[in-house]
Design a protein that fits this description.
Length: 207
């Protein structure tokens, strides 16, 4: 099981980079810690299905200033998703050739989900695709791992999660899964190959 952002898909994590991607300058207000926290909470709530896209976009726009239209907030949200990581499609194809079951378990949202399915070939190859906004659950809540275990139909000890966040890996381990934390700044496919080799899965090394 793969996380998406930071594992299969490169994302823009920083507000300044998101602003630059849509061609605007961050305001002083938007850089204040309390405003950053409100923006992060809105994103989390949206991805868990507790906010609509329109509400989240409005909160993100208002974090710049009161006159910023919600369309700018939506553009900023769209800018988070950047590009797939190199080597991920080859890795997934290799796992399928070995007869292994693959899937994703991601804290995401409808806007990013639709784009990733449409544009990123690694996601379309996965056998199971589980997303927080559809399940109304989010990592690291225990219930999301329980649901995923049921969907996979496998004993927990036979499931491996690749995720870039320590708390999500901890949640998987508490559910009885194996979990491997991935450094999103590195070559993610190579890291996953190394972990799989340690677990006894006969994958080749990264090219």
């Amino acid at each position: 099981m793969f996380d998406l952002g930071g594992v299969l898909v490169r994302i823009r994590r920083e507000w300044v980079a998101q602003c630059a991607a849509v061609g605007i300058e961050p305001t002083a207000r938007s850089l204040e810690p309390t405003v950053r926290a409100a923006r992060a909470k809105a994103l989390d709530d949206w991805q868990r299905g507790d906010l609509t896209l329109e509400t989240c976009a409005s909160i993100w726009a208002a974090s710049l200033d009161d006159a910023t239209p919600a369309s700018t907030g939506r553009a900023l949200l769209e800018s988070i998703v950047e590009a797939p990581y190199d080597g991920t499609v080859d890795l997934i194809d290799e796992l399928h050739a070995l007869g292994l079951v693959t899937g994703c378990l991601s804290n995401t949202n409808g806007l990013h989900w639709e784009r990733m399915i449409r544009e990123f070939p690694a996601l379309s190859r996965l056998r199971h695709r589980l997303a927080s906004h559809e399940l109304l659950l989010a990592k690291p809540e225990p219930a999301i791992y329980e649901h995923a275990t049921s969907v996979l139909g496998l004993p927990p000890q036979r499931i491996v999660l690749f995720d870039d966040l320590a708390e999500n890996c901890d949640g998987a381990r508490h559910a009885g899964w194996h979990a491997c934390q991935i450094d999103h700044e590195g070559h993610t496919a190579a890291q996953m190959r190394a972990h799989l080799t340690q677990l006894g899965v006969p994958v080749g090394s990264a090219a």
